[in-house]
Amino acid sequence: MTKKELRRLLIVTTVVMLVPLVVGLIIWPQLPDQIATHFGVNGQANGWHDKNKTVFGVPLLMIMIQYICFFSLYFDPSKNNFSKGLFKGLLWIAPIIELIMMFSIYGIALGYPLDIGMIVNFVVGYYLLAWVTIYTK
């Protein structure tokens, strides 16, 4: 991938990762002061944060993780051995996980009955299938 393509990919994924922050600001008045952010294997909430940390902290932390992944891949001496699809797939992991995670957290905070176990199983299953497809091409 060219530097221009990489820069564009980083900008696009960063903008996508800011969407939950913007949505959080829009729904801020409806969000409770304490928001469930961690769930046990039974789907029950067992960890909470205040809405400041949830709305601002989680997206910014995920963006930081995205940049660490990006620069780790960018400066990897074997990056030329990666297929273009694999490189793009690696850089879309954090944005997709963040979108699913944050919208699930917002939904539960607003009282929507979401099954966290089903969501996690879907995401993990999808990525396992996607990795097999991308990695074997």
| Strand order in space, largest sheet | 1-2
Largest sheet: 2 strands, antiparallel
Number of H- or I-type helical stretches: 4
In total, the number of strands is: 2
Q: What is the global morphology?
A: globular
Structural class: mainly alpha
3D structure, described in words:
This protein is mainly alpha-helical and 137 residues long. The protein contains 4 helices and 2 strands, in the order αββααα. It has helices spanning 3-26, 51-74, 84-109, 116-135, and strands at 34-39, 45-50. A two-stranded antiparallel sheet has the order 1-2. A hairpin with a 5-residue loop joins strand 1 (34-39) and strand 2 (45-50). Helix 1 packs antiparallel against helix 2, helix 1 packs parallel to helix 3 (84-109) and helix 2 (51-74) packs antiparallel against helix 3. The chain is globular and about 45 Å long. The two termini are 17 Å apart. The mean pLDDT is 83.
Pick out its properties:
137 residues, mainly alpha, two-stranded antiparallel sheet, 4 helices, 9% strand
In brief, what are we looking at here?
69% of the residues lie in helices and 9% in strands. The protein has 137 residues and is mostly helical.
